[in-house]
Design brief:
The protein is an alpha/beta fold and 420 residues long. It is built from 15 helices and twelve strands. It binds pyridoxal-5'-phosphate. Pyridoxal-5'-phosphate binds next to α4.
Length: 420
């Protein structure tokens, strides 16, 4: 099946009513046939619905469709993108372990990895996404996962995915890419050796800024990398909290299953069925929208590049971008998504421009049909120190744009008048 067909049909078989739209199963729990059925479900002798913190039929369609679009074997939905990232980390790392993370990641991922998980005893070691060879010196026997973004937010760098996975595979370490900005449509990370992907589905998936959500996707045959790998002993030893279950002995996708059985059970960041339903509506048009977001962003980047007040434009789809070859290699038809940033002389000038736009909204979100302008240094990245800001590639004069689906020429005119 081609992508647009997967986006519309995968994961859903019509119920007895022949319902065309995926129904919203707005229910907390599910009746068992009898106590034996209940016991079998809890013991994984049969698979089925127990309780919405663990699974839900609407969310199940969303997960199956998302996994199919990304090219993975299974996916698990979470209440937000941050929950997905946190669960992907703590599914493998515990006190005394370390993780390796790109310096250039979303502000929430920087504070999560730099501060919050430190309090769980997990150390983060950072590398420059533009220099993956730095990873080698950071690896030791306690390294559990390497995390990076395929297109970074907000510095808009493009990861050389195969350079990262080559080092990780040499040491048998799992890699996890945050594919939020690129989306499953533009980038298929598993084709380049990545093991797991995470998404904030709050962005392009919902597409209209309607709902928070997150997703973890697992590649096919991940068990081959985990079975017998001493780094991942949790998967190879009996899980005391699940009456001795050994995940690597199961014929099921083991990473996402452990998130479901252990982390959603105990930490509880499950998606609401209604949000999953909204995300399903978003997926139906995702391939079409990503084409338009990318085409429009390219035209706007070209306009900004020619503007005398703009010092620098970060958009990897521009031929002049040093990362243009990476976009050609990793992204569908060289499309580079709808996120771009540009630099002007000062923090004050950046704020003035954001305030002067009329169609763009000053909002801290991306991936909406409505265009958004953000000044990261005073908002999403406000909690970062001067050093963290520099490492994340966020100078005071940086303005970030999330190009929506309005008429491109109208957006150019709006920026023209704001820049005056
Ligand atoms: N990852 C990236 C690349 C993001 O841009 C964001 C949010 O902006 C997140 C993760 C966090 O997602 P959420 O807001 O759904 O928790």
């Amino acid at each position: 099946m081609h992508e647009q067909t997967i986006a519309i049909h995968a994961g859903y078989e019509k119920d007895a009513q022949g319902t065309m739209a995926v129904p919203i199963y707005q229910s907390t729990a599910y009746e068992f046939r009898d106590t034996e059925h209940a016991a079998n479900l809890f013991a994984l002798k049969e698979l089925g619905n127990i309780y919405t913190r663990l699974m839900n039929p609407t969310t199940d369609v969303f997960e199956k469709r998302f996994a199919a679009l990304e090219g993975g074997v299974a996916a698990i939905g979470t209440a937000s993108g941050m929950a997905a990232i946190f669960y992907a980390i703590v599914n493998v790392a515990e006190a005394g372990d370390n993780i390796i993370v790109a310096k250039q990641v979303y502000g929430g991922s920087t504070t999560l990895t730099g501060h919050t998980i430190k309090r769980f005893g997990i150390e983060t070691r950072y590398f420059d996404v533009n220099n993956p060879s730095q990873i080698e010196a950071l690896v030791d026997e306690k390294t559990k996962i390497i995390l990076f973004e395929s297109i970074t937010n907000p510095s808009i760098d493009v990861a050389d995915i195969e350079a990262i996975t080559a080092i990780a595979n040499k040491h048998n370490i799992l890699t996890c890419v945050d594919n939020t900005v690129a989306t499953s449509v533009l980038c298929k990370p598993f084709e380049y050796g990545v093991d797991l992907s995470v998404h904030s589905t709050s962005k392009y998936t919902t597409g209209q800024g309607l709902a928070l959500g997150g997703m973890i996707v697992e590649r096919h045959n991940l068990v081959e990398k985990i079975k017998g790998n001493t780094r991942y002993y949790h998967f190879n030893e009996p899980d005391e909290s699940y009456h001795g279950l050994v995940y690597s002995d199961l014929l099921l996708p083991l990473f996402t299953l452990r998130v479901r059985l252990a982390l959603l059970r105990d930490l509880g960041g499950a998606p609401s069925p209604f949000n999953s339903w909204l995300h399903i509506q978003g997926l139906e048009t995702l391939p079409l929208r990503m084409k338009q977001h990318s085409a429009s962003a390219l035209k706007i980047a070209e306009f900004l590049e020619s503007h005398p007040k703009v010092d620098k434009v970060n958009y990897p789809g521009l031929k002049s971008s040093p990362q243009y070859p990476l976009v050609q290699k990793y992204f569908k038809e060289g499309m580079a998504s709808g996120l771009l940033s540009f630099e002007v002389g000062s923090k004050e000038e950046a704020q003035r421009i954001a305030d002067a736009t009329e169609i763009f909204s000053v909002v801290v979100n991306i991936g909406d049909s409505k265009s958004i302008i953000t000044h990261p240094a005073s908002t999403t990245h406000q909690q970062l120190s001067a050093e963290e800001l520099r490492d994340a590639g966020v100078p005071g004069g940086l303005v970030r744009l999330s190009i929506g689906l309005e008429d491109t020429q109208d957006l150019i005119e709006d920026l023209k008048q704001a820049l005056q």
